[in-house]
Every structure is written in structure tokens, then in C-alpha cells.
Amino acid sequence: MRKPCCNQDGRNKGAWSKQEDQKLVDYIKLHGEGCWHSLPKAAGLDRCGKSCRLRWINYLKPDVKRGNFAQDEEDLIIKLHALLGNRWSLIAGRLPGRTDNEVKNYWNSHIRKKLICEGIDPNNHKLCHHHLSHPQMFPITNSSESKKNDSCSSKPPSKPCGNNARDINGKYENGAITCVEEETSSMLDLNLKLTIHMP
DNA sequence: AACTGGTCCAACCGCGACCAA
DNA sequence: GTTGGTCGCGGTTGGACCAGT
């Protein structure tokens, strides 16, 4: 039997009000991050801890950068995704001020379509033979064009490396490192040197 | 102006990992 | 070694917004 979700106990769900935001910000300013489970009660919020944590990390944190992604940020996301796969938290960690949720959304709504329309498989970042042999089926378009023509879109990518084990520092254990190395060796043209280290 | 379909993003859900008892 | 509580991550969804008709 699955554990009931923390949100099934009649607590608030959906969009956050300004009052709720303010309560959360005030509490974290006073007491700092952490102890998410007990935070809502202590802060006087009718939310679960997970919801509070998500709201803080993705929206309320002072260093969160809002607005459009720059071209160099987009390039970096593509390169990092080629190496790491759907490890959004790791990718976001290399982009100051960006959150994993934001990177994930941007990937799914913009970059993925762009790559597909350019004939690149977003799962493995390799040129799609189908596109090469039938270029008319995957016309290269800009982002606004791709909005109109969503024939390029497909399901979000699945985890490219299967069960990647992750330790508490966000580094990878043996299997995943091997996976990254394989990815790296298969994409030498990306010309990217990446090291993952402690924050 | 009203309707419709597509897009985007904030938030939710479920699962796995970690850790203390 | 087991169990229960907590945290963090990635996938998914709902609804607001926008452009086209």
C-alpha cells in the first residue's frame, strides 16, 4: 500500500497567495532553510512541507533569476543535457540563479522542439537519420515557427542512463559515471569539458 | 467580439535515497 | 538488518495566457 501523499489531508493546494509567500519568506529569513516538514506549522502555513520547499526554491529564493534564458545559457543546457541526461538539478546547479524546474520546463517547451526540428534526437543528441534522409519532414525553424508547427514535438525524453545512483552530493556512483563517459565519448563534437565537484 | 486550439509554467505527485532509532 | 520519517528529484498535470480564425 502506497503512502498517502502529504497533500491529501485537506491542506491548501494550487497557486500561492501573496500572504502565504510573505509568511514563508519571513519565516525563512528568521530561521533559515531546512526542517521542511515542521516549517508549515511553525510558519502558520496551511501547506505541506514539500510544497513550501518547492515554492521557496523555485520562486521565492532571493537569488532566483527570472526571465528568458540567454543564448549561452541555452547552449550550456544542451551540452550538459548531452552529458548528464535528465539530471535537471545537476544542470541547474551549473546555471547560477536557475532552478531545476525552470531548466526542465525550458527544455521541454523550447530546446527539445528546437533540437527535433533541427534533426537532432534530444534523447541522445545525435543527428536523426530520418531527418537527414527526409529533411522536408523536419524543417529547420525558429522557435516561433515551431510553435505553429508542433509536428516536431514528441514525448519527453526518458532517463538515458537507466537507474543512475546518486549520492547525497549529487555526484554519481560507478554505473552512472560509466554512463556519462560513454555519452561523452559518443559526442566528441560537443567539445565540452565538464567536471562535477562539491558546491 | 467570441471561440478554439496550442503553449508555457507553477505546482503537484510518486518514488527512491538517506538517516536515525 | 529493519523500519519509519524526511528530503530531494524527475515526471506529469491543470489552468492561465496567447494567437489564429
| CATH evolutionary superfamily of the largest domain | Homeodomain-like
What's the CATH architecture of the largest domain? Orthogonal Bundle
- Characterize the largest beta sheet: strand count, sense, and whether it forms a barrel: 2 strands, antiparallel
Distance between the termini: 37 Å
SSE series: HHHHHHEEHHH
What is the average of the pLDDT values?
Answer: 67
Low-confidence stretches: 1-8, 131-191
Number of spatially distinct domains? 2
Describe the structure.
There is one protein chain. By secondary structure, this protein is mostly helical. The chain has 2 domains: 10-60, Homeodomain-like (Arc Repressor Mutant, subunit A, Orthogonal Bundle), CATH 1.10.10; 71-190, Arc Repressor Mutant, subunit A, CATH 1.10.10.60. The protein is built from 9 helices and 2 strands, in the order ααααααββααα. Strands 1-2 form a two-stranded antiparallel sheet. The longest helix has 18 residues, at 100-117. The model is unreliable at 1-8 and 131-191 (pLDDT under 50). The protein binds a DNA duplex (21 and 21 nucleotides) through α3 and α6.
